[in-house]
Structure formats: C-alpha cells, structure tokens
Amino acid sequence: MLREALPKIVTPLPGPNAQKIIDRREAAMPGAIKCGYPCVIKRGEGAMFEDVDGNIFLDWVGGVGVLNIGYSHPELIEAVKDQSEKFFHAMMNITTHEPYIKMAEKMNEIVPVKGDKKKTMFVNSGAEADENAVKIAKSYTGRPNIIVFTGAFHGRTQMTMAMTAKKAYAIGMGPFPDGVYRAEFPNLYRKPEGMTDEEAIQYYIDKLEQVFIEATPKDATAAIVFEPVQGEGGFVPAPIEWVKAVRKICDDNGILMITDEVQSGWARSGRMFASEYFAEAGCAPDIMTTAKSIAGGLPLSAVTASAEIMDAVTPGTIGGTYCGNPVSCASALKVAEVMERDDYPGKARAIADKLNKTFNEWKEKYEVIGDVRGMGCMMGVEFVTDKKSKTPNAELVTNIINAAVQKGLIMEAAGTYNNVIRFLCPLCATDAQIDAGLEIYEAAIKECL
After folding, report:
1. Required co-factor (predicted)?
2. What gap in Å lies between CA 147 and CA 133, rounded to an integer?
3. Which of 204, 279, 295, 319 makes a 20 to 30 Å CA pair with 392?
4. In 142-280, which ranges are continuous DSSP H helix?
C-alpha cells in the first residue's frame, strides 16, 4: 500500500511520462509559476506519492504545510463526497449553510485568542485571511497603520506583498499600500555578536519601540502582526519572552496583536495552534489567522477574534463569494475531528523529538550546518559556508534538495537567503518513512560536500 511505502526511484528523473506533461506545463502555464521538481504526481496517500512513471516519493514539503493530515485521508474523502452530493456552493450573504456555522463554532472553541466569546469568518487563502485580519483591526481600532517584521511572509495580494519582507515575491508590483511599517524580528541565531539571548531579546524589543518613534505613533497603530514561527523567513520561532513584551506593548497602547498561523497551525507546532503556547504564558493574541492544513487541501482559511472585535467591523468590508465554501468546511470539520481524536499534536512532538536528536548530531558533525531550530514539527536546518562566519550557503541547499529528489525525497528551501531546508512532512508519516527520509537527507549532504 502506498501509504506504508518507502521511497523508490525506478526511472531517471524526470521519467518519460513526466517529461511530456512538464513540456505541456511549459507551453500552457506562466513561467513565473515555477516548479523545480522533476516529477508529476499520479496519486498520493499519507506522506507518500507516486508519479506518472511509477516512482515513489516521500514528501517532506506537504504542499508547503497543507497536508499535515496527509494525502487522501479516507475520512476526508467521505466527508467531501457526502457534502458534494448535497450542494457545492451557497454564499453566506445569500443563504446560510450549516457547514460554515459548524466550522465557525469549532474554531471558536479551539482557537486561543483573547476573549470569552469568539467569532470566526472564513475566506479562501492565507493571504486573504491576513488581509482581512488587518481590515478587522483597522475597523475595530479606527487606526490606519500596522507593524510587521523582517523575514515575514504574509501573501501575494497587494496588501500582503507590502507586509511581506522578502521583496523577491513582489518585484515590479509597487506601489504598495501605505501604513505598513517594519521592525526587526528576533532571530537569535543571527543576533548581534556578543549578546546573550536575554540581551538580544531586549535589543529586538527596543528595535520595535523605535518604530513607534520613527514611523508610526502608538496611537496610529492598529495592529502588530507576526508569525509564531516564520515560514519563508527561515523557520525562525518567536521567543516567548519577546512575545510577552509585544503583548504588553499592545495592551498598554490599545494595539491588537495578530498571529499569522497560516503555516504553523493545525498540529504542526506540537499543539493544535502555536498560539496555545502564548496563551499559556499569558500572551494570547487578539486575532489569529490560519489556512494551509485547515481543510486537508481544499481552499479555506479563517480569521478568529473576540466577538467584541468582530462585531465592530463595518458591514460590507469583509466577506466574499466563495468564502466558507460548504465542501471545504465539511472537510475542515473532519480534519479537526481526526486531529483531535488521533492526537496529531502528539504525532508532531514525537517526530520532532527524533528530528531534533538527528539534526543536532549533524550540526556537530558538519561544519556547514549552522543552526537547527523551530517549534514542534515545524523545523528548519540553516546551512552556512562555515560556523564562524555564518555566511548563508544557498548553493549547497539547492544542491542538497536536487540530490535528495533523485533519491525519492522531496524537500524545500526557505529563508531570506534561501539557505534553510524546511521540514513540513505530513504528520501521519511512519517511523520507517522518517528514518528513510533522514537517510536520504544525510546521503545528499555527503554527496554535495
């Protein structure tokens, strides 16, 4: 069964069938939508997929965090079939449908935002969720500006391209919306030389305070938006003491704290949401966004906040035609049910324990591994030319990824300088699959060195 299989390459990549489809892709699609992997998926189960030439791949990217529950989960398939036979679409501005309400009720139950009574709205993508969270914050506070961070990725709409730090995602797309200001994110691996972690956290807090002096006054700031673990920024986790300080700044000045859990949500962090760690430390967000794995691969995203914040939004400024599609909501309800029942956060913690041990052994063994970091099973390995200089080594990362795919392991780069390899494997991966992936990964490192 594919679900239990191990990587196996039976043809040179790309295989002949894959090459034909890749050629058709080049003729039919914009070149700006790039793909560097020499395979074409035929079917997928769990953490594995088979391509059109019979090659079997272990997927450690999972649709960039979309497949935490894995490919083709049987219960999701049944939930989608059942809803699709009733109706595909019903716009909530025209006729209420219960799947939306049920999923909103579930989100209000499990999302760790401030407030006793919560409300949730649905949109279609992570970028839409982030943009709507900003709109909600502006509507609630009556203020025009937001603060985001270095290393941030929030999407590809005009607003979220402005929020995103890495401008490789926004070349030629300006001018961008006004009112978006940037502070320095606390990357403890790349903190100023000679500082302790404690000193560095205060340094980054001071950098945030400087933004209020030089860019947006506190009484003009609607929200501070950050990812609990930066995704495209290189899988950099936000230190809890820094989050506590951000929460206090927000509380003292009427600013809303927004956590972007588009990638970190749905058991990836070792909790259902990374913001649970913050809530336990007394620094829960005011608004949380989530997408990616929420519906197991169907388009859906969510914004959750207190009823007080949500009910202050000006009517007509949020919503949309496909928002909260009933088939996607049916799938999302089943995702939540299965993840809670089968303890997917526990699966993430178990995989993370193995990865932490192995990756840190590699860190001691290889001069080119500078840092191993993350939260739960959202982990990154940062590659450098040498440990002393910490010079980013993007070329090596590219070579390792290309070598690994030829052996049946799919991995992806991240980071401002593309020198981090991210781990987003489906959390249903078997022990044997994780071991096989680690074996291929290290073989690729050795080959490329």
Report:
1. pyridoxal 5'-phosphate
2. 13
3. 204
4. 158-163, 197-214, 240-253, 275-280
Pick the closest to residue 259 from 105, 427, 112, 82 (CA basis): 112
Strand, coil or helix: 272: coil
Rounded-to-integer distance, Cα 324 and Cα 106, Å: 13
CATH architecture of 2-59+344-448: Alpha-Beta Complex (3.90)
The list of the chain residues with pLDDT below 50 reads none
C-alpha 323/C-alpha 330 separation (Å) is 13
pLDDT of 185 reads 98
The amino acid sitting at 439 is E
> What span, in angstroms and rounded, lies between the C-alpha atoms of 221 and 144?
6
3-state DSSP call for residue 225?
strand
> Residue 412 forms beta bridges with which residues?
422
At residue 167, the pLDDT reads 87
Residue 40, helix vs strand vs coil: coil
Which residues of the chain does CATH 3.90.1150.10 include?
2-59+344-448
Outline where DSSP puts E strands in 14-90: 41-45, 48-51, 56-59
How many residues are listed for the chain in this entry? 449
Phi and psi, residue 195, nearest 5°: -85, 145
CATH architecture of structural domain 78-341 = 3-Layer(aba) Sandwich (3.40)
Buried b (16+ CB within 10 A) or exposed e, 120-154: bbbbbbbbbbbbbbbbbbbbbbebebbbbbbbbbb
| Whole-number pLDDT of residue 294 | 98
Which amino acid appears at position 234 of this protein?
G
Residues 43/32, Cβ–Cβ less than 8 Å:
no
Give the integer Cα–Cα distance in Å for 296 and 300.
9
Q: Which residues pair with 224 in a beta bridge?
A: 147, 257
User: Cβ contacts of residue 163 below 8 Å, gap of 6+?
Assistant: 130, 134, 146, 148, 152, 154, 155, 180, 225
Alpha-carbon gap, residue 328 to 236, rounded angstroms: 30
For CA atoms 382, 387, 390, 393, the dihedral sign is negative
Give yes or no for a contact between 261 and 142, defined as CB atoms under 8 angstroms apart.
Answer: no
Q: List the end-to-end C-alpha distance of the chain, in Å, as a whole number.
A: 35
Which SS3 state, helix, strand or coil, does residue 62 take? Answer: helix
Q: Which residues pair with 261 in a beta bridge?
A: 290
Classify residue 258 by its DSSP letter: E
